[in-house]
Amino acid sequence: MNLLLIVVVVLAVLFFLRAGLVPSLNFLIWVGVVLLILAVLAPIARHGPLLPPPVSA
């Protein structure tokens, strides 16, 4: 996790130095969106969907 954080920070600084503030913030927003999606999907992938078992008739 620390390595991922270092990579994201280095990429954001490179974007800031090369393109300016807005593209670097846009990059960090997309990183946040991807991490949010992964945070939602990880428990679902680990435990399966939180659905009740089917009722047999």
Brief summary:
This protein has two helices and no strands. It has helices spanning 2-19, 21-47. The radius of gyration is 18 Å and the shape is elongated.
What does this structure look like?
The protein has a domain at 2-40. 79% of the residues lie in helices and 0% in strands. It contains 2 helices and no strands. The chain has helices at 2-19, 21-47. Helix 1 (2-19) packs antiparallel against helix 2. The radius of gyration is 18 Å and the shape is elongated. It starts with a helix and ends in a 10-residue tail after the last helix.
Features:
57 residues, mainly alpha, 0% strand, elongated
Determine the fraction of residues in helical runs and give it as a percent range: over 70%
Shape type:
elongated
- Spatial gap, N to C terminus: 47 Å
Taken in chain order, the helices and strands follow as HH
Residues in β-strands, percent: under 5%
Low confidence ranges = none
Structural class: mainly alpha
Described by strand count, sense and barrel closure, the largest sheet is: none
Total strand count, please? 0
Radius of gyration: 18 Å
Average pLDDT: 84
Treating each run of at least 4 consecutive H or I residues as one helix, how many helices?
Answer: 2
List the helices and strands and how they pair.
Blueprint: H1 2-19, H2 21-47
Helix pairs in contact: 1-2
